[in-house]
Automatic annotation (TrEMBL):
This is Uncharacterized protein. It comes from the Bacteria.
């Protein structure tokens, strides 16, 4: 169980919108930036900012205070390829009558670009992806357009404990995501049928990647989409060939 605490100076800097965004963050798989151990117990929010870019990170209460750290002018957003901490949830979700294979990536730590002072915070990952051809998603009626050269590679049964793995590569070969994925029944069949999956990225409010609760996933995505917090695209997915009968 994680309880998040913020100091007054952190609250003041983030403003109401920033606080609402912070409350959506999943800390379930997060790590303390001070000691690198998993977050648990009371967790302090730390904001690093240079006025135009703001990065929100988390530490154990015993590892440091909740504070605002002023950074130099060269403090800048890292691209997702530089390794954001992410969770990946797979689901098969109805889009206007079609059951589509879906991947939902949520960043654990949040980084924001400050557009027009406090209250206008844009998620760095989302804004990076919009620049890469992803679309802002308003509803789940139909799949967003495909982005060229993005590819998801499934590594079935090749994780450290024999679990399934997923690698998502951007057009420059950068690793947008590398880690475990827990595929629900029917996901591979639909991915093989279409040759692509819908990759959604945003603040879906802390999904449970192993719960396989398609209704809860769809609900969280709709909420994120309505809040303007979801981007998406179809990406090519390589799946293993059909099993020999
Ligand atoms: Zn710590």
């Amino acid at each position: 169980m994680v309880e998040l605490q913020m100091s007054e100076e952190v609250r003041a800097l983030l403003g109401p919108e920033g606080l609402a965004r912070a409350a959506e963050v999943s800390l379930a798989d997060g790590r303390c930036v001070a000691c690198s151990r998993p977050l648990d117990g009371t967790v302090h929010m730390v904001v690093r900012t240079n006025g135009s870019f703001t990065h929100v990170v988390y530490v154990h209460a015993g590892c440091g205070p909740s504070e605002v750290i002023q950074m130099g002018p060269d403090f800048a957003p890292a691209t997702p390829a530089d390794g954001y901490d992410m969770t990946m949830t797979a689901a098969v979700l109805d889009h206007g009558g079609a059951d589509l294979p879906v991947l939902v990536a949520e960043t654990v730590g949040k980084a924001y670009i400050v557009n027009d002072g406090p209250g206008e915070l844009t998620n760095v990952v989302a804004s990076h992806l919009l620049g890469q051809g992803f679309h802002l998603v308003n509803r789940l009626r139909q799949a967003p357009p495909q982005v060229a050269e993005w590819v998801g590679v499934l590594l079935l049964g090749h994780g450290p404990a024999g679990e399934d793995g997923l690698l998502v590569l951007d057009p420059d070969g950068g690793q947008f995501y590398t880690g475990a994925v827990d595929l629900p029944d029917g996901w591979l069949t639909q991915a093989a049928r279409y040759g692509w999956a819908v990759l959604y990225v945003g603040n879906a409010g802390g999904l449970h990647p192993r719960a396989h609760d398609a209704k809860a996933t769809a609900r969280a995505l709709r909420t994120a989409a309505q809040a303007g917090q979801l981007v998406g695209a179809r990406i090519a997915v390589g799946t293993p060939g059909p099993a020999q009968a």
